[in-house]
Amino acid sequence: MKSFNHVKRFRFIPKRFFSSCGGPISRLPNVSQHLIDQWISKDTFEQVRQPITKATTIPPQAYYDDTYFAAEQQQIFEKQWFCVGHTAELPKNGDTKVVDVGPQSFILTKCKKGKIHAFYNVCRHRGARLCEPGDVKNRKRLNCPYHWWSYRLSGELVSTPFFDSDNFKKKDYGLLKIRVETFAGMIFVCANPEVGSLSDSLGDIVNLFKDYPLAEMDIKGVQEYNLDVDWKILAENFMEWYHVGPVHPELATFSTPEQHLMQEGSGNYVGFVTHPVTNSGGAADTTNFNPTPQTTTYDQQTAFFYHLFPNVSVTVYPHSVYTLVMLPTAPGKCKETLYLLQHPDCKLETDTQEEYQSKVDALFKFVCKVNDEDVWVVKRVSKGLRNSQYVGGRFSPDMEKTCYRFQNMIGDAMTGLYPGVYPPQMTDYYKSFPHMKETKSQDDMATAISQSQLNEEIFEEENTVYAELLNIEGTTSSTETEEQAEHQSSQTFSVVEMDPATDSMKVLMKDQEFKVLDFSETNVESVENIVDEK
Q1: Measured distance CA(319)–CA(296) in Å, rounded
Q2: For 389-408, how does the pLDDT look when each residue is reduced to its tens digit (9 = 90+)?
Q3: Which one of 83, 197, 332, 334 is least enclosed by Cβ atoms within 10 Å?
Q4: Helix/strand/coil (H, E, C) string of 5-41?
Q5: Which domains does the chain carry?
């Protein structure tokens, strides 16, 4: 392919190719498996494996090349959990929704028992599509328009008019199922029967949302975008705040960049917070609505931003949530759906229904404006990275740690490593996953992962939730060597427990020697005393 000439020139293609997870991708017969294999070699992502201060982003061809697109469909969207929408889109038994992802199409249903199912959008008779994306409605059955074969919403084949055969049993020809799970009111599917549960993938973010009532929220607005932009560009744009000042002047007054802090733990997600948010007379001000029920005082002063790997971004304001679901449609193209959700209790008691609706409309207009600004700039990125001389960029260590973490997740999923959960505060891939550094083949990698039990020494540590609030800096004397200083500055704390209401903080360490560092902006008087409380 023409685009792969650039890859060869910059040595992104390894000398030998191998497949990490099996046969060729379905429904993409024009892409040879050996071209796909070039994208699932660990060498292709070596530049992003370096420490964040030295790392280079993944190859730009990953955002538009058709062979990469085929590899990504095979390695991510056919083998990992990904988001397809919200449970609030299927409020009644009998509701259905069609979701297209690349060449695949799925039907979501809510059967008469209230359970959500997911199926491939294809009749088992002659392969006709059962439903089209716009054909979303409440129904009793899924009927094929070709020969009138009919299926229950739970997938069983129940009717085959004028079809009779001694060698045919309806129970053997139900709809083709795909795994489906829900988390915090979001619907995820997975075509891989061997991958673990959704909660295994998400890690400790499951606990962060444990008591948050997102599943009880109503959809207040939906905006769809069909873009000539790869979904990963949208994801990376969401998760970094480097661009907030230049691109979002109105948002910057409410969620100011200088108040942004990383918030990550162990799991396949990236996250940060704005604390505190600043009321600025806008539609998102905290005074316009009641806070979301079951939230703390800290929650009610904070905006949380999470991107759940691979394809859904979640913004949690004190009074509402908006999500961005990004689904690839073709090489360099995607469909993005913006949802605004709010709990019914967020309506102020003093507001009439008309006043409340006016505030909701203004809030939806605000979040759409922010997203429209993002769409404007990512279109430029999509066009710019196709220049033949562009080979990738660098990461801002302060404001693009999330992108570094996300791109390493992409590299692992593409090469079949996908270790399950990422450690807190990853800024050096091989320090986080030392067992992967010297492996030479997929078999070696699998063996290394098994032998190290996913690097127990990292993953058994408790999760860091507010580690960035510590603002830790190593102090070195003039006699210390550069190597000692580097070791000192790389010390991290594995567990941080914080009471945001009182700004009190407890740091726990696991069987480690340490030197007291400078804990700025905290009320901690003695690290030794706190550690002794363990």
Answers
A1: 12
A2: 989 999 988 778 889 999 99
A3: 197
A4: HHHHHCCCCCCCCCCCCCCCCCCCCCCCHHHHHHHHC
A5: 82-183 (2.102.10.10), 213-384 (3.90.380.10), 467-532 (no CATH)
